[in-house]
Structures are given as C-alpha cells and as structure tokens.
Write a structure and sequence with these properties.
The chain is α/β, with parallel strands linked by helices. It contains ten helices and ten strands. The protein has an eight-stranded mixed β-sheet with strand order 3-2-1-4-5-8-9-10, with helices on both faces.
Length: 217
Amino acid sequence: MKIGILGTGMVGATLGTKLVQLGHQVKMGSRTATNEKAAKWVKEAGANGTQGTFADASAFGEIIFNCTKGDGAIDAVKAAGADNLNGKILVDVSNALDFSKGMPPSLIPSLSNTNSLGEEIQRTIPGAKVVKAFNTMNCVLMVNPTMVASGAHDFFMCGNDESAKATVLEIIKSFGWESIIDLGDITGARTMEMLLPIWVRLMMKFGNPNFNFKIVK
C-alpha cells in the first residue's frame, strides 16, 4: 500500500519506519521538499521510503497519517490539499496541546470539550475520511504494543466512516494490537484527546512514557 506521512518528528518517523518494515511504500511530507529530518529518515528507511512536501505525500498516499503538532495540524492538512485528500483515509494522530506556558501543556480551548482536533480536520477537509487513532500513547508503543504488559492494554479509535475504520483497523492489527476499542463517530476524538492531560501528568510522575490505558470491566 502507498502511505503518506505528514510530519517529520518522532511520531511520523516511528510510524513510517514500521510501515516500511511491513512492506508499504511511504512518502514523508513536510513544508519543504528537502526537509533534513525527512532526508535522514529516507536514508534509513531504504527503497520504500521517499520524501516531499505535504501535498506530495498526500497525492502519493492511498492512506495519509497526520503526525504534525496539534497547533500546526490544520495548516498542514490545508497545505496537503483537499484535492489530494478527498475520498482518502486521513488518520489523525495529532493532539491539540498548547505548550506556550511550558510543561505540563494545556488543551487548546477552541479544540477541546465541545470540539476536537479530529473534528476540526474533518470540517476542514470534508471529503476526507478522518479516523482518529494512535494519539493516546507514546510513539514507540504505537508500533510495539507488547513492550508493556505483553500487549494487554487498549487502543482507541473513532471516525465517521465505517469502511475507513475497518481499513485502519487492519493496519493497527498488523502492528500487533489485539484490544481495540471503537469509540464511534469522530466526536469520540474529544474524549481521546482529553486523555492527554492525564497522560502527560503520568509521564512526568513515572519519568518515562512506557505505559498505556487498560479498561477493566
């Protein structure tokens, strides 16, 4: 499968590397076609890893992963282009976090409680099939669930399009996840993104990000 990644940080690089290892072709996109972080990742990824602009990655991919920072995510998907995203699955991994006052961050007020970044992206590119996923954990755990409790913990996702969620579900399972909870339509992104304040506090408390949530019932 051809997959586009928006973002050159740790999250984009980690997901991109895993997808390449699974045999997918991955193009990493950034604001410029010659981004140094993307070039470094391409060199490490091998023949199935390429780079370009946000628009290049979105035009290339059958599925697009948005791995940009929350405060720049809307601008990133706009730069990716509605024409390149219409009809495609857009997996939103970003979080609406405001680091302007340092740690711990707060949620961006206009993108929380009665709204979310996932919903805002869906409104911005209404022709895309937005699936919120991967945003409630550290990027290393995203691609290797067994590193914590032998994988006995939960993965959350949501989105409006059932077929899009089914396709993303197969990718999630290919990473080794077994306990996957579908939280319904894209408004479920509100609850997923509102997990981040407690996630950050726990990370600060534990001194490392190697943990996840498990729903016991």
